[in-house]
Amino acid sequence: MEARIKGEVNNVIYDHYGERWYTAKDDPIALLRAEARARTPWVVNEIRKAFADRPVNVLDVGCGAGFLTNELARQGFAVTGLDASVQSLEVARHYDATGSVRYETGDANNLPYPAGTFEVACAMDLLEHVEQPARVIGEISRVLKPGGLFFFHTFNRNPISWLIGIKGVEWFVKNTPRDLHVLRLFIKPAELRQMCEQSGLRVESIRGFAPKFFHSAFWKMILTGEVDDDFEFQFTRSTLTGYLGKAIKSGEVI
Question: Which of 62, 251, 236, 112 is nearest to 164 (CA)?
Fold first, then answer.
């Protein structure tokens, strides 16, 4: 595996998952699948509430192996998935049951699309993996149409989030790589609001998002180091650890 700078988040691991994106239980990638199962229905419902039966073009930035992207396509949206990992995109294409998703390799800091291309953009589990999240958000705002929606999920920066979201995963989930996440790249909700506002995005809602700690699958993970398919995340009142939300692009709706 490539040498990395100390303290840099380990993004190269995603090039090596292959089919394990969708099958591995002895790996934190299974937590990503569980997150997607919990939050994707919310994203779908919010898009439909905003746009009803109008055509909707969706951009999923940092789409990985297509957990969100492929489900959005299955729900009938026109979807583009962008990621820096060629290997992850190959897996995503393989699991696109609709064959309709446009998967493209690209840089979130410089999105290869004209201004005002999309009605919706998503950045799920991405912003804590980049060095300049404000720049990424600015690019997302640029490619959104006025009135467009931006959905995000990331992690709060504090000692509890470090203990649960970083060390807890390292201690209790098998095959967790070094620097899967680094605390310095976590983003406080107030900081994310400010980044959005500076790019013409008004944050409409932020909700906490965390595992169901009292679910049997959570305790099975603690005991075995494996994440079963019935492991669940839920929306919470507290944004102390993970959180997700929705912002709206300013300007007159087209």
Answer: 236
